[in-house]
Amino acid sequence: MCADVVKESTAVRLDEELTRSQSLGRMPSVSAGLIRGDGLVWTGAVGGIAGDTPPGADVQYRIGSITKTFVAVLVMRLREEGLITLSDPVERWVPDTPFGDRTVRQLLTHTGGLSAEPPGSWWERSPGVSGDRMREIWSADQVVDEAGRRHHYSNLGFAVLGELVQRLKDAPWFEVLAAEVLQPLGMTRTTLTPQGAATSGWAVHPYAEVVMPERVQETGWMAPAGQLWSTVTDLARWARFIAGDTEGVLPASVVARMREPQAVTDGDEWTSGQGLGFQLVRHAGTRFCGHGGSMPGFQAGLLVDPATGTGVVRLTNCTTVSPGAASSLRLWEVLQECEPTPPAVWSPVPAVDADALALTGQWFWGTSVGVIRIDADGRLVLESVSGMMPTSRFTRIDGDRWRGDGAYFTDEVLRVERDTQNRVTCLNVGTFVLTRAPYQPGDVIPGGLERGWPTR
Asked: Rounded to an integer, what is the distance from CA 113 to the centroid of its chain?
């Protein structure tokens, strides 16, 4: 499964931390894993109820809203196939909703102004209803805000996205997921209903040391919002997918776009945000991507740092974790304390493009200073030295045209401009004219120069 594991001393610390969390959180059981590089480097399991399936890395738990990340990937696959665009209104694909003018993107990012829950009884604890029944009972009450105004989490929105997948693929959304995503990734233990070794869900009394079994409901049309079951092992593979190891299911660049912040979910603090179906968390100077999940009897969490491929999965079988239990990121902190992520070993590339190499070195935008270098992937990297030079990266389109793929110049085109003797005179990106010296040569500066620099 993985090329390496943590040191024995690190494993002891992690086991202690997991046990402490289980005890303080009063969790009937907890299974967890840490991912780094190609797979799991540590797994742990604590607790268990007599007569129930003991916890373990390959034991299924219900993962709740982590389901939404799988649905989001199916939607992005439809986009890659040219079947939809993210700006399509919902009514184009799923008719007869009270929010047909809201876009696919807004549903993915929870910015459509939809109600958090569907109409009717508490859907997570009630037998699921069909889409036809939902159409009979929903109303204008399911629109609670104007489109695009702010983040407002909506389980209802993801149920609609599941129907969108079903309509465009002419097959149930989970069948599409199994064939197009789970099977290629080898995730055989992620299922719509519990299969094989699976734990039960429990309610822990808040003021007494007793538990009560929770009833598991099949959620029907709402299933895309939180139905799935999975394991630590399978979710470790999903963490690697989110970090960019996509196995052809989606281009890594598309998954990277899904990780980009689309909305801030906690206001001025900006410790949590929303991407295209993924939740974002900023912690200890690191931006994590993944999702949390809860259903009656279960809590789940998956977070991964795409920059290092280090992530954590924690699954537990209780409706509510008691106060005092550390978050799943505490396991990541222990790993970082004991075995910090090592820097990548540098090695040279065989060769670089001669034209690109000629563009490296110092450049000026007016009096602002920047430096261009070439990274290992052959991209131009513009780094600010001083002044207002925007930092960015550029990938070659063709010849003397490069497209920005980071920061201020994202999707802008950088053009290498040349004189009649094919010598580079300047770089022009979105009307920013970069020259080899401050405001020189003057004939390429927009508006010209009032006069040159005073010289003797």
From this structure: 21
